[in-house]
Amino acid sequence: MTRTTLDQVARAAGGRVIAALAARYRNLDLAEDSFAEACARAAEVWPKQDEPKDPAAWLYRVADRFALDTIRRRKTRERLKPDPPAPPPTAEDVMLDDEGLIPDERLRLIFVCCHPAVAAEARVALTLRLVCGLSTAEIAQAFLLPEPTMAQRLVRAKRKIADAGVPFEIPGKDAWHARLDSVLSTLEVAYASAHADAAGAGPHAGFATEILDLTRVLAELLPEEAEALALAALVRYAEARRPARLDELGAMVPLSEQDPSLWRRPLIHAAESYLRVAAACSPSGPRSLQAAIHSAWCARRSTADPLPWPTVLSLYDALLQVQDSPIVRLNRAVAVAEVAGPRAGLDEVAALDGVAMDGFAPYHAVRADLLARVGRRDEARAAYDRVLSLQPPPAERLWLERRRATLGA
Known about the structure:
By secondary structure, the protein is mainly α. The protein has helices spanning 3-25, 28-45, 55-74, 91-96, 102-113, 120-130, 136-142, 147-164, 177-195, 207-221, 226-240, 265-281, 286-298, 309-322, 326-340, 342-350, 361-373, 377-389, 394-405.
């Protein structure tokens, strides 16, 4: 088995294995360290033998043995005594069976990480690290923070969970409200990491299917919670458009240029059902407004249908009232440029903190496009060069290189 295959298995199974270990041993650091050790042993052993029949199960077994050995070495078996073995099917079977209860196990760890004892700004980051397997650098980029700052937050969050004796279980429904926004934010960021690569070939592309399932579970558990329903709608709208995200040469196709006839209508219909119920519960929540923006786009049936920019701008205006963030303002600037002209859009982008957003590729891509449209070609070329230096995925790179080439040398 190649190193690439191991990386793929680790990314696909890591969250499930860590969730299983954390639930079993009640120790986040031990779970994460044990999985890392299992991956290290796999890198050494797998190339020398036949591929394991179930690589994820192999990683779980090795990680489990390492955890037990660690406990023995620390002479704290009683304090960290694992739960008694579950009756057939085994805990391993449940954790690693894609047709089983994986969503519930993932949700258990998500709710643990989003406990109110953990600082609000660290809850989502910790969940993305442990459950979704994002690197500290990737999480820092998602929050527009320096990597050392994010690393410190993660350490403090895990220590807080240990010190507070947070139970490793899904809390009663009366305690869900205090954690729900962090849970939903985690799923949002995880899905964004899956959706970031238009070709669906990025390291976290597999999250897309899992987030579809997790949002379904949450919507079933919370049928009157508007934001949970809206998130379920949002990811379905986005996944519906996936078949139209690449052209025949493998370059990204922007949303405004996609062919709506290629979109998956069953997913759009499912999204509309979720959004109708969400809107009836609370039409002005941030995720309900985001889903409404997606709905406005997905109402198009063909390339002959008008682009919904005025509606999109009005929805971004409403969203800004309840979720004022640099990313919302950047997306709104795109709509402003289409409704009021590129100079107006460029003014909106200029008002953002360029230093804080310097590592955020979409910021430079939007700025480059608007600079080109107002005739500031030298600045546009520099902005395209900057976004290309951030190593975008291949499909995005190909599209950006095409746009850069239209400006000449």
